Amino acid sequence: MLKPRLTVKTRHRRTNVLWLVGIFSLLIVIGMENILSSTFVLDGGSTVYGYLLKQLVFLVIGLLTARGIWHLGYQWLRHWCRLFFLASVLLLFAVKAFGITVNGAQRWLGYGIVSFQPSEFAKLAAIVCMAAALTFFWDCHGEKAAVIGRFVKNWHVEEWEPFLLKKDRLFKSYGLLCLIPPLILSAIILLQPDAGTAIILFVPPVLMLICSGIPFYDRHWPWWKVLVFVIVTLAIIGLSFYFFAHDYQKDRIRAWRSPDSYKKTIGY
After folding, report:
1. Domain map of the chain by residue range?
2. Tens-digit pLDDT string for the chain (268 aa)
3. Does the pTM exceed 0.90?
4. What own/partner pairs with CB < 8 Å and gap ≥ 24 does 4-13 have?
């Protein structure tokens, strides 16, 4: 049977997939090399490749899972993204109630030798929810009436439609509204405390929003308003870190700023 001739659209799609597979494969190779170089001395002489083989098992499981999701299609993920988000929130709260405490932080759930970190699932939930929200906007071709109409219908809040149609500024901030689910997940993780994971979780959705081209502020703002917004945002982040950060988090900043002064203490 002859293969169908590639169109411009399918050719571009195949090229994108090949790029993704290439980048993914390169990351696997680099990751495996790092695991081997940093853990082979911990095997106690049993086997040089103990940790590497363990990681390869997880890699195979991940690839099989990815193949299954590929077969189901991204629409399957999009359909269940709300349930995925809710499950991630419940698991993160479960960590605060029943989590395993290690080094003063509760980040794991498990019993006996079986344990897992719900924040890793939350990272995926944040990306899936963000992708679904951005796709929803483009499916409606960015038209305000279409976006609001489909939103109130999907959430069964038709009585909100006249109110939302009047809120032009709210619609111009659609991109910022998309960040609410990742922000909620990041805030819960921050309470564990796990600031590093919270930042890592929140950054990809922000980059997705920027790359999507969807508006997240009023494009008619003058330059001074944008500057004030940036300064205020940075000030809030700085003050929040100063007043609410833990001592070990502040130590990391001190060690980063003056590595030579702390190389034998907190820098080590």
Report:
1. 49-79, 85-217, 221-268
2. 445 566 766 777 788 888 988 998 999 999 888 888 777 666 555 556 677 888 888 889 988 988 888 888 878 888 888 898 999 999 888 887 777 776 666 677 777 667 778 888 899 999 999 999 898 888 887 888 888 888 888 778 888 888 888 887 777 778 888 889 999 999 888 877 777 888 899 999 999 998 888 877 666 677 787 788 889 888 887 787 777 677 777 788 888 888 777 777 877 7
3. no
4. none
Q: Indicate the residue type of 181.
A: P
CA distances 158 to 145, 170, 208, Å, are 13, 17, 29
